[in-house]
Structures are given as C-alpha cells and as structure tokens.
Amino acid sequence: MKAMELVGEKWIEIVTCLVISTTLMRSVSGSESECIFPAIFNLGDSNSDTGGLSAAFGQAPPPNGITYFHSPNGRFSDGRLIIDFIAESSGLAYLRAYLDSVASNFTHGANFATAGSTVRPQNTTISQSGYSPISLDVQFVQFSDFKTRSKLVRQQGGVFKELLPKEEYFSQALYTFDIGQNDLTAGYKLNFTTEQVKAYIPDVLGQFSNVIKGVYGEGGRSFWIHNTGPLGCLPYMLDRYPMKPTQMDEFGCAKPFNEVAQYFNRKLKEVVEQLRKELPGAAITYVDVYTVKYTLISHAQKYGFEQGVIACCGHGGKYNFNNTERCGATKRVNGTEIVIANSCKDPSVRIIWDGIHYTEAANKWIFQQIVNGSFSDPPHSLKRACYGKSIRRHKFQLL
C-alpha cells in the first residue's frame, strides 16, 4: 500500500514538473517573439539627428527634407533617416530632438543626437571645425537630466505631464546609438596619418563604453548599436583628400579610409563583447551597417540606384560636392538670392544625398536589410532586441 502511495506521489511529482516545464517553455518562447518598446532614446551624430543641431544653430536649409517632409525638418537628408524607420517599425512617432522646444512631444522617447557630434569632446568651436560641442558625454548628461526632470514634472501633474515618458519607460525603452564617424574624420582634419587615427580609437571607444555603462546605470537595458559606415565612399572625404589610383577600389571608394572604419568597427565589436560581460542584465545588439552601406554603394545598379559615390545635392567637382558650397548653398546674382547647390532630379535613385549623408531611399533600403537581424550580433531582429546574446542558453537552464 505504501509502495503504491509512493508511486502515486512520484507520478504526481513527474506530471507537475512536466506541466510547469511546459508552461515555462510556452512563456519563454512567447516572450521571445516580440519586444514591446514604449519609447526610444537615441544618441548619435548627423546620421540620426532629427533636429538637434538645427534647433541649436539654425535649420538645415532647403532642399533638405523635400522628399518626405516637403520642407526642412532638422534632418540632413531629403527625407527620413534610419532612426525614423526604426521608430515607425516600433509603432512610435518620429523622435523629436531634445533641444527642440517647439511643439515637441517626448511621450515615447527623445533624440539627443546632433549633427557633427563626436564621442570625444573636440577642442574647437563649431564655426572652426564644424564639429558639434554636444559630444556623446554631453548627450548622456542631457539624457540623465531629462530622465530626472521627466519624473518630477509627471509627479507635479499639469499639461506637461502628458508630453513626457512614464517612469517605467526608461527601463523598457530601446536605446539606439550611431556615432563615431566624426571621431575618425577629426584626425584627418588635423593632418593625422591613418596609423595616428587608429592609435586614438581605443580612447574613443573607452569613452563610448563609459556612456553605455552610464545609461545602464540609469536603468537602460536594451541597446541597438550601429557601427560606422564606409568613410572612404563619401564625397566629402574623396574631395578633400584626393587619393592615388592604387588607393582606390573598383567602386570609387578610398581604401585607406574604409580600412580605418573597419578597424574602428572591429574594436567596437570587442568593446560590445566586454560590455556584455560587465553588464549581464543588458541586451546589446551590434549592427553591421558598414557591410550594408558598402554593399549598396558597390552594387548600386543591382538594387535600383545610380552613381554610388556621387552626391545628389551639391555643386561642382568630380563628386558634385564642394565643401564651401554644400547642399542648399545660395548666391546673390543681380540682387536675387539663388540656390547654387540644389537637389538632383530624382533622389529616389541616388544613394548619397549631400556628399556626407544618405538619401531617404538609401536609408530605407539599409533599414530593410538590418531590421530582421541578418547583420546583427546576436542575429536578433529589431523586435527581439530586448533579448541578450545568451537567451537560448538561459532558456534551457530554466527548463
């Protein structure tokens, strides 16, 4: 009798374990399917600036914005940026710039990026070098202050309560980063050699790492980090630093500049791996936009584009780019102000917008390649960016 009772108890225990295991498995696999990000907070440079520099130093001039917004909208492009498509796919409104006080709603996030931003603070003014004084460390300070003040304002109530994120959004949000390109060009502007530029990259990435840790300390857990693009394929580098024929690849890109960008990206990936060890609660996705951008430029016609390294909006020169007469530049002729650096006829078939940034069509194509995780480490789609690299190992340990 006792033996039968023991068997019965053992059987109940086995069944209970199976039920619990099955429930856990369904719960985990269900939670894997999609992350719900109630907000996005972005830090970066002009590749993701939705109005920060314009709010601080004057609007990006027309014809910027002509394709989608039909007028200047703070973006250095004819239309939307990758960060805009990220917001769209998450069901959120386009991010308003933190510095833009006009009609801004930050309920579902904020954008701290400004064009010309670097990771390391620059020892020059924006008028001297073109680099923004709002470096990544300053953006983090702005974010931290925004988080603190948002909580206080919401507690006080009133009209502004509805324009700021809920407190829990800061831990549930997606944190996106796209910065580093200007740190590389800063060295070349000082006549550094490629080896000298490479030498200071560890310091740049050390400061980048500190900001990620800072955001983590503020409660951020989901990070989506873009590496830097093919610097040697941008007209503003090709025009300013002419290369020997042997230094150019078959697609018209400067190999030395692309090599330093690739070196930066390798070191960035190492930093990300280290951050995963130091921040076990973080889900950090490294996104290889370099490969996607270079593939598009080097196979432009295959993907329905034209003239990979020629700017759409510009004036003169081999690349339709003049550093002193950039996109939107005007000139007074017989008392009338005319635009001398205007848009090409059809931006939708061009990749490079103004010699530095990409067209909306290119940004959309790039987003479509990265959104499913094909160029990510770990290979999670954007909708699963809240999961860490070792999610499957954790799942099996749980069961």
TrEMBL record:
<keyword id="KW-0732">Signal</keyword>
<dbReference type="InterPro" id="IPR035669">
    <property type="entry name" value="SGNH_plant_lipase-like"/>
</dbReference>
<dbReference type="InterPro" id="IPR001087">
    <property type="entry name" value="GDSL"/>
</dbReference>
<keyword id="KW-0378">Hydrolase</keyword>
<comment type="similarity">
    <text>Belongs to the 'GDSL' lipolytic enzyme family.</text>
</comment>
<dbReference type="Pfam" id="PF00657">
    <property type="entry name" value="Lipase_GDSL"/>
</dbReference>
<dbReference type="InterPro" id="IPR036514">
    <property type="entry name" value="SGNH_hydro_sf"/>
</dbReference>
<keyword id="KW-0325">Glycoprotein</keyword>
<protein>
    <submittedName>
        <fullName>GDSL esterase/lipase</fullName>
    </submittedName>
</protein>
<dbReference type="GO" id="GO:0016788">
    <property type="term" value="F:hydrolase activity, acting on ester bonds"/>
</dbReference>
